[in-house]
Amino acid sequence: MSTETAEAPVAKESEALLSKRRKKFITDPLNDDNPITVQVLGICSALAVTTQMKPTMVMALSVIFVMIFSNLIISLLRNAIPGRVRIIVQLAIVATLVTLVNEVLKAYAFDIYKQLSVFIGLIITNCIVMGRLEAFALGNKPYDSVLDGLGSGLGYSWIILAVAFFRELWGSGKVFGYDVMGAIGFESFAANGLMVSPVGAFIVLGFIIWVQRSKTGYVEH
User: Fold this and answer.
1) Is the pLDDT of residue 193 over 80?
2) Burial of 206 (0-12, 13-18, 19+ CB in 10 A)
3) What's CA 146's distance to the chain center, in Å?
4) Of residues 192 and 130, which shows the higher confidence score?
5) What is the structure's pLDDT at 70?
6) What pLDDT was estimated at residue 7?
7) CA angle (196, 199, 205) in 5-degree steps
8) CA 24, 26, 29: angle at the middle one, nearest 5?
9) CA angle (53, 58, 31) in 5-degree steps
10) Helical axes 110-121 vs 86-108, angle rounded to 10°
11) Dist CA 177 CA 180 (whole Å)
């Protein structure tokens, strides 16, 4: 009889849900690889919808929703999508999610819908959404793709919210419609028309990019 004993198979250690590698999917787009300030994507909506905080918040949540679920669906279907039609499939999935967001806003927040209807529709062709589907979701597992979508959505969102904060504050003295300047004693604050124009958005966004790149040391190649 053989005295050899078979070695027990070594169980492969599963990766933590928020391992160091996975945390980078969320943290990198917030600063070092921000889709707006570093990759220079999604600039149009950052300039167009950021006159007030309320519609900007709705736009940010809409993009986060679309990015998370489009990444998830494409990742789940990645092995079943023929390469020649992958862009069409991606557009169809994103368009379906955007239509869902559009109908929800129309039903429950009609005033915001009227302000954002055109720009909500343009999420379908947003380079950030399509870029992450093509560059990440098609080649990675669903959970990682969800984190990637969340991180990119948050990176986009905090930039447009920051732009909207300064534009609404300096443009009208308000934030979320609340009279901040009046509350702190500047009752005679004059509205700044420059801040509610696209030029004001360019100025604020340029300042944010300058501050961020100064801190990170990022240099355009």
Assistant:
1) no
2) exposed
3) 12
4) 130
5) 95
6) 53
7) 95
8) 90
9) 75
10) 170
11) 9
Tokens of residue 127, six digits: 């380079």
User: Using CA atoms, how far apart are residues 116 and 105, in angstroms rounded to an integer?
Assistant: 9
Q: Where are the beta strands (DSSP E) in 60-213?
A: 174-175, 178-179
Q: What is d(CA 76, CA 71) in angstroms, rounded to the nearest whole number?
A: 9
pTM of the complete model: 0.85
Count Cβ atoms below 10 Å from residue 194 Cβ, excluding itself. 13
pLDDT digit string, tens, across residues 19-49: 888 889 899 898 888 888 888 787 777 777 8
**Among 69, 75, 34, 72, which residue's Cα sits nearest to residue 162?**
34
Segment 83-92 mean pLDDT:
91
| CA distances, 67 to each of 81, 200, 210 (Å) | 19, 28, 27
